[in-house]
Write a structure and sequence with these properties.
By secondary structure, the protein is mostly helical. Helix 3 packs across helix 5 and helix 4 packs across helix 5.
Length: 106
C-alpha cells in the first residue's frame, strides 16, 4: 500500500507553488463534479440505484471488510481513517458476527 505522505510528496515534486497538487490526466484540477460524474457513470454501468454516491460505496466497502472478518486496524488503514472511527461506526457489525459465531459452534 502506498503511504499517503509519500504520494503527496511525489505529487508536489517539480510543481510551482500555485499549481494544483492533484490533477486529472489532462492537467485540470479535480473538483466535485469530476468525481460525481465518474461515480455516476460507474453506478449506471453497474446498474445500481441512482441514489448511490461515493460515500455510499465507501460505506458498503467498509461494511464488507468488517463483516468479512478483517481486523479493524487494517480496515481503518484501507479506509484512511482511525480505528476509533471504524469501531464507533462499524464495531457493532464485528460484535454481531462474533455472537453468531458462538451460536453456530453449539
Amino acid at each position: 500500500m502506498v503511504k499517503p505522505l509519500v504520494h503527496v510528496k511525489s505529487s508536489a515534486t517539480g510543481k510551482l507553488p500555485a499549481a494544483w497538487l492533484f490533477s486529472r490526466a489532462d492537467g485540470r484540477p479535480w473538483d466535485r463534479y469530476s468525481w460525481r460524474d465518474l461515480i455516476n457513470d460507474a453506478v449506471a454501468a453497474a446498474k445500481l440505484p441512482k441514489a448511490v454516491c461515493a460515500y455510499s460505496l465507501r460505506h458498503s466497502a467498509i461494511t464488507d471488510l468488517v463483516t468479512s472478518g478483517l481486523d479493524l486496524f487494517h480496515v481503518a488503514q484501507l479506509a484512511g481513517t482511525s480505528v476509533v472511527m471504524i469501531e464507533k461506526n462499524y464495531g457493532h457489525l464485528q460484535r454481531k458476527q462474533v455472537r453468531e459465531g458462538y451460536r453456530s459452534s453449539d
